[in-house]
Amino acid sequence: MLEAVIVDDEKKALQSLSWELTNFSDEISIVASFTDPFEALSYLKNSTPDCLFLDIEMPTMDGFQFIKKLSNRDFPVVITTAYNQYAIKALKNEAIDYLLKPIDTDDLSETIVKIKKFNAKNYTADKLEKILLNFNSNQKYKKITFNTDGKLVFLESDQILYAESDGNYSTIYLKDGHKMVLTKKLKEVNELLPNDSFFRIHNSYIINLTKIKEFLKTDGYVVLESNHKIPVSRQKKSDFLDLL
Questions:
Q1: CB 174 within 8 A of CB 180
Q2: pTM for this model (two decimals)
Q3: Residue 230: what are its φ and ψ, rounded to 5°?
């Protein structure tokens, strides 16, 4: 049974869609419905349905604005509307499907198949991710795990030279010359790295202490084995010297 949430600002339209969905088959159960998109967003912060049926034309917030405000997108979104000019934009906003009102039974049947495939694929991926993370955490010398570009990357400490901040993003620089961009602030990256071998030497940099080749005290820089020059902030200099 698929648990669905409906968001439509028109009460009659919401009731009609609920009726169409629940009377179509016993495959869908409406667990929540909202005429107020802000209430729906609040609900979805702590709930993950199997699918969301979302109207486009709402006065306080249109459907595309709603999608952008979703903090949790681990479920498929189906756009519902009486107007057919939104199809391409719906797909660009990563909606799994697009249904015109009144909803055709055959179209709804195809949408349900897409929802099931989407959820089955995500369930398998989530299950595998948990297995990998659990396996890594149980290793004697566990690797550092980064989640980036839809994949998990497991690295040894020795592979990492340093990390650099770029606002809400961070870049990890590797010994082999490659780099990896993460959608994490440097503070979050720092929490992932073992503190016995990594040190936040500057607001914008974390270095691997085992990769230091030189410390230029007058200039306030460290030089890594890769010849990268990383500045040492005044606030961090005393703690850094204590480590050395």
A1: yes
A2: 0.51
A3: -120, 125
And the tokens for 135? 């396996």
Fold observed for domain 144-243: OB fold (Dihydrolipoamide Acetyltransferase, E2P) (2.40.50)
What is d(CA 62, CA 37) in angstroms, rounded to the nearest whole number? 9
Cα separation of 63 and 81, whole Å? Answer: 10
CATH 3.40.50.2300 for domain 2-132: yes
Render pLDDT for 29-87 as a digit per residue (tens, 0 to 9).
899 999 999 999 999 988 889 899 999 888 888 888 898 888 777 788 998 887 777 65
Q: Residue 93 CB: number of other CB atoms within 10 A?
A: 18
Burial of 88 (0-12, 13-18, 19+ CB in 10 A): exposed
Q: Is 22 in a helix, a strand, or coil?
A: helix
Cis peptide preceding 49, ω within 30 of 0: no
Query: What DSSP string describes 162-198?
Result: EEEEETTEEEEEETTS-EEEESS-HHHHHHHS-TTTE
Tell me if 103 sits within 8 A of 111, measured CB to CB.
no
Name the maximum alpha-carbon separation found in the chain: 77
DSSP secondary structure string for all residues of 27-64: TEEEEEEES-HHHHHHHHHS---SEEEEES--SSS-HH
Within a 10 A sphere around the Cβ of 28, how many other Cβ atoms?
Answer: 22
Q: Which two tokens stand for residue 161?
A: 């030279």
Per-residue DSSP letter, 4: E
Domain boundaries, the chain: 2-132, 144-243
CA–CA dist 168, 85 (Å, integer): 35
139: its two tokens: 């290793």
Q: For residue 162, name the pLDDT band (cuts at 50, 70, 90).
A: very high
